[in-house]
Each structure stands twice: as C-alpha cells, then as structure tokens.
Amino acid sequence: MSGTCASKEQSARSRIELEGRDRLCVTGKSNSGPTDIEVLRMGFIGTVGLVLHPERTSAPTVDAVVSWSRARDAKVLGLAPEVARIGCEAIPVEADEMAASADLLISLGGDGTMLRAMRLAAGGHAPVLGVNVGRLGFLADVDIPELPAALDAIDGRRFTVEPRSGVRARFGAARELALNDIVLLRSPGHRSAAVAVRVQEQPFVAYTADAVVVATPTGSTAYSFSAGGPIVSPNAEGLLITPVAPHATFNRSVFLSSGERLTLEVLPHSGDLAVEADGILVGHVSPGDVVDVTMLPAASRVVRLGHTTFYQRAQRKLRLTGSAEHD
Are residues 12 and 88 in the same domain? Predict the structure, then answer.
C-alpha cells in the first residue's frame, strides 16, 4: 500500500510507503536533492531471543520462528551453546546480550526451560512466551501449532503481561535467584534437615524434615505441592514454606506476605544441607549457618494471550476432574 503527500510548496515533496504491515519507509526530496530514507518498525517485535530445551532439538519450531522473523526483518538470537548444538540460523550470543537486546524471549520446552528463560529475563524489559514442546506445563501459554498466530498477536500488541515474583537467597557470599523455589535439602548420609524459621527477626517454628522448601506462588505447584503444600494463585505476593517428609508434630505449610522478612537458621543438631535454586544445586550450608530469603516482586514477566487461565492450566496438568457432584 502506498500514498503520496505533497506540500503546498512545489520545491519540496515527500513520499510515504507502507511496506507490508510493520514497516514505514519515508523518502524525502527537496531542491537540494534526496534526503535519507528512514525505516520505522511499527510492530512490537524487533528482536527475538530463543531459549531451548537442553535435549530436544525442536528444529521445525525454531525454523518457524526464524521464518516468521525474517519476513518482518526481525532478528533472532540464540544462546551460543544451543545454536551450536542444533545448527539453527539464530545469531549466537551470550545470555547477558540476549537479555539486554531481545524484545521477546521464547521458551521452547517445558516448565524447566521456561524457568531458565524467566531467570535470564529477570530484571530486564523482555517478557517471556512459553511454548509447550512435549509434556504440558503450568507456565507455557501456547502449543506449537499456535505459535505463528501467537507471534502475530504479540507483534500487534494484542497480549497481556503477567508479572511473576522471584525469591533470592543469601548465604555466606552466595546470592541465588529462583523463580520456583529455594530448597534446603538433607545431604545423603547426613542427619535430617533441622531448620528454624524466623519471621520479622522473631522465632516462629522449627522444622525437622528431609527438606524445607521456600516457594514463590509460581513454585507452589512444584516441589512444595508434591510435599503436600497448597496451590497459590500467581497473583498472590508472598512466600510459601513447606516441610518435606517432616518428623515433627508441626507439619504444615506457612504463607508469608511479601513484606515479611524470612530467615532460615540451620540448627546445631541438623546435618549438612544442600541448597537448591529451581532444582539446581547452588551451594551447601552447615549447622549454625543462616539463609536470608527475600521475595522479589515482578522479577520476571510472562506473556498471556488469553487462551487459558492459571486454574485451567492447573486443572489440565494435575488432571483434576472436579469436586463432589451436586444433585
């Protein structure tokens, strides 16, 4: 589609052409000769970053993203080791460059891949679109056949963003970020985890268990849930503490509000404990050590296209068939 705009002065003319749906080219011309050509993208997506499942190649899906982006003069970035592994046409970059440059991160995999993408995007401007590759997850919003239409909708700004809180653990010199959970876990061959919970610097409860999980609302459907913890809406802001296989009278989960300070102290009669962030081993603590835990509001942002709600995804994933029937 093209149109011509003429000024009232015959000495100057400008021509505006729309090329496709997303590009606006302006060519100026005056008595002194043609001016520079300016190209403006009107869509949301100028650069896409891909985060891939560590084992599945997902080559056809990657090719679909590359083809979609090429048609719109958008760039596709990939993490250098992943680009080398699957041999795709994405531009290989380091994680920091992808986080800083991408307008949208696309996770191709399950919830684990989505969590990696969300950690990579944490603190940045790019939201994360989750694409189910394989098993159904809680976090992904679209399936593979829906991807081209989803990209069109995002490029046309027909989407919403769902903020997801994170959790940061500080112990010794370590500072670890998680989107699901921080776990203090009994080490093989050592005694159980004996952990005192302090809230607002006041002693509250002590757990003796195989592990103590501190989960975000996002992580409430992961390890905490398998240990008997409740499902928490992602719209809630707070931290959920759940013991795993507790050996004490008090065996309940506790939910703290976002502004309450949480400290975990490894008690003298505890064994040495491993510390995991989103299932990744990040360190160890011993009796007498302290772990300070802080909730990070809106640590990452997830794209939502309105296809399903959190409760519909949870219902499908957990295969909930409903409650008691009513006559």
Answer: no
- Is the backbone of residue 189 left (phi > 0), alpha (psi -120 to 50) or beta? left
Residue 31, domain extent: 2-41
Whole-number average pLDDT of the chain:
85
Which of 103, 111, 141, 289 is the catalytic position? Answer: 111
Same domain for 178 and 64, yes or no, is: no
Query: Has residue 143 got a pLDDT over 80?
Result: yes
- Would residue 327 count as lying in a domain? no
Q: What pLDDT, on the 0 to 100 scale, is given for residue 31?
A: 53
Q: For 203-215, what is the mean pLDDT?
A: 97
Same domain, 191 and 83: no
For residue 40, pLDDT over 70 is answered with no
3-state secondary structure (DSSP) of residue 164:
strand
Which CATH number characterizes residue 89's domain?
A: 3.40.50.10330
| Residues β-bridged to residue 99 | none
The Cα–Cα gap between 96 and 94 comes to 6
CA dihedral (104, 110, 116, 120) in degrees, to 10, reads 0
Q: How many domains does the chain have?
A: 3
Say yes or no to pLDDT of 291 above 60. Answer: yes
Report yes or no: 214 and 239 within 8 Å, Cβ to Cβ.
yes
Whether 111 is catalytic: yes
